[in-house]
Every structure is written in structure tokens, then in C-alpha cells.
Design goal:
Number of strands: 0
Shape: globular
Number of helices: 12
Structural class: mainly alpha
Mean pLDDT: 76
Radius of gyration: 37 Å
Low-confidence stretches: 1-13, 32-38, 264-285, 292-297
Helix content: 55-70%
Oligomer: single chain
Length: 297
């Protein structure tokens, strides 16, 4: 048996009594862990008041953190409800399109005015919330749609400077900022805004917008750039469709200065129906109405 006890035949003669006394003395002594624990207990006993205050402070801090978390969640919920109501105004029909008994606005202008005011209110009353940040982006979208390109530029730029890269509206806001610059004739700024789509993992849209701007500026390489979209990004069906529509629009003959003669068989006083190809091309020429989808990583 090893340890504090040694075998008697290993000891020198006459040393047995002395070794047993030493062993008993060692057994009575506390080990290191017991000493440290004992000292800790002694310190707590002497400093009992300080310990109680410290524990109470930790408990209060934990309660405050929990309360702050609940407060923030409550604010976000309220802000989200306010934002939902503001967005609902945008989706209401005008009187001419409404169903019987359905809430509506007398005109598109009145609808836009009411929606803008509601979104501004969301921002003012819910500062620091995700809903307020989203309302800023929605203000930019609505102003761009309403023809206020300068106002849209400011709101969208402010949103992009404060929103995180993971915000679901960031990519659409970045592209809309490019359209806001373009609407004001700031084509170099528009090109820079569209180019940043690459940083958001949207290289196909960045190339498409570069080609589209080249077409707007009448550059000879524009058509080749648009044709290259389908080759480089065959799986990006939406972008390819838009690029093809731009190519089709560019291939149409220039519109004559004088009004063309009515098509054969067309009723007097009624315009001839537009060609399907022209309809599709013109439709694709408008800015996207939905956020561009990101690739799933």
C-alpha cells in the first residue's frame, strides 16, 4: 500500500513510533483545497455585507437586462404594427377600381400622399427600430414611383448608410438608388450605384444595368453587352428576360415624327392594337417592382 503509510519492513529499526506520529499529524492537517475553501468562507463571513450587496447588484442588473429586452421587443412590435398599417395604405385601390364597400382613395395622388405621411410618422415615433429603418426604404421606393427622384435619392442613400447588409430590402434599395440618379440625369452616379450590386452577390444585375445604361447613352457596345447576359448568366432567367426585352426594344425602328396612318381594318377613331413584342419590351423597360432575388448560398 502506497501513500502516507509505509510498510514496516522498509523502515529502520526504532523508527516505527516516530513515523506513526508523523502520519497521524499529516492526516489531521487539511489539504490545499480545504485550506483555500476555508479561507474563502472566512472572507465571506467577514465581508458578509459587501457580498450581499454585490449579489443584489447582479440580480438587479439581470432584471434590468430582462426588462430592457422586453421593452425593446414591445417597441419593435408596436413599430411593426404601425408600419403594416402604413403599407396597407399603399395597397388600397383608388375609387374607380374599388369593390363596393372597400376602403379606397379618390386618386393615386391622394393615396401616395397618405402613404408618405404614414411612413413619415412611423419613422418619427419609432426611432431606432427595424420598422423605422424599413419605413425609410419604403419612403424612397414610393417617392421614386411618384416621380420625386431627388427625394427618393436622399431617403434611399440614408437607408443604405444605416441598414445592415442582411436587411432584406438592401439589394432593392441599392438598385432603386441607381434609378433615382438616372431619373435626374446623373448617369455616372447611377452607374456607380448599380455597380455596387456586385457587393451584394448580384453580378448578373450589375452587368445588366451597365449594359442598359450603355444602351441609354447610345454606346455601340451596348447590344453586345446585353447579348452577353444570356451567355454569362443562363440560370438568371429574370435578368435574361429583361436583357432580351431591351434588345428587342433597341431593334425596333425609330418612331416617326408624324403619327402613322391607321392600320388596315382598324375602326375609325380607335388606335391599332400594339404589337405583342412592343408591349413586352416596354413593360420590361420599367424599373423592377419587386426586390431582386439573391442566390441561395
Amino acid at each position: 500500500m502506497y501513500g502516507r503509510y509505509t510498510r514496516s519492513f522498509e523502515r529502520q529499526p526504532g523508527s516505527r513510533a516516530l513515523s506513526e506520529k508523523i502520519d497521524r499529524k499529516q492526516l489531521k492537517q487539511p489539504d490545499e483545497f480545504q485550506q483555500v475553501a476555508g479561507k474563502g468562507m472566512e472572507w465571506v463571513a467577514v465581508h458578509q455585507t459587501q457580498v450581499i450587496l454585490a449579489v443584489a447588484a447582479v440580480a438587479v442588473a439581470a432584471a434590468l437586462g430582462w426588462g430592457l429586452s422586453l421593452y425593446r421587443a414591445s417597441r419593435e412590435a408596436k413599430a411593426g404594427g404601425d408600419l403594416s398599417q402604413a403599407l396597407e395604405l399603399e395597397s388600397r385601390p383608388i375609387a374607380a377600381e374599388a369593390q363596393p364597400g372597400q376602403d379606397s382613395f379618390p386618386s393615386k395622388e391622394e393615396r401616395s400622399k397618405a402613404a408618405l405621411a404614414a411612413l413619415d410618422k412611423v419613422r418619427a415615433e419609432n426611432k431606432g427600430t427595424t420598422a423605422a429603418q424599413t419605413a425609410l426604404a419604403e419612403l424612397g421606393f414610393l417617392k421614386l414611383k411618384s416621380g420625386d427622384a431627388a427625394g427618393a435619392q436622399k431617403d434611399l442613400a440614408d437607408f443604405l448608410s444605416g441598414a445592415g447588409k442582411d436587411h432584406p430590402l438592401r439589394s432593392f434599395a441599392q438598385e432603386s438608388l441607381g434609378y433615382a440618379y438616372e431619373a435626374q440625369g446623373k448617369l455616372d452616379d447611377a452607374k456607380g450605384a448599380f455597380e455596387k450590386l456586385r457587393e451584394l452577390d448580384l453580378p448578373a444585375r450589375a452587368d445588366f444595368q451597365a449594359a442598359r445604361l450603355a444602351l441609354v447613352q447610345g454606346k455601340p457596345e451596348a447590344k453586345q453587352q446585353l447579348e452577353k447576359i444570356a451567355k454569362d448568366y443562363p440560370k438568371e432567367t429574370e435578368v435574361v428576360r429583361e436583357a432580351n426585352a431591351r434588345l428587342e426594344l433597341a431593334s425596333l425602328p425609330p418612331m416617326p415624327s408624324a403619327a402613322p396612318a391607321p392600320a388596315p381594318g382598324a375602326a375609325a377613331g380607335k388606335p391599332a392594337p400594339a404589337k405583342p413584342a412592343l408591349k413586352a419590351a416596354v413593360k420590361a423597360a420599367a424599373p423592377p417592382s419587386k426586390p431582386p432575388a439573391k442566390k441561395t448560398k
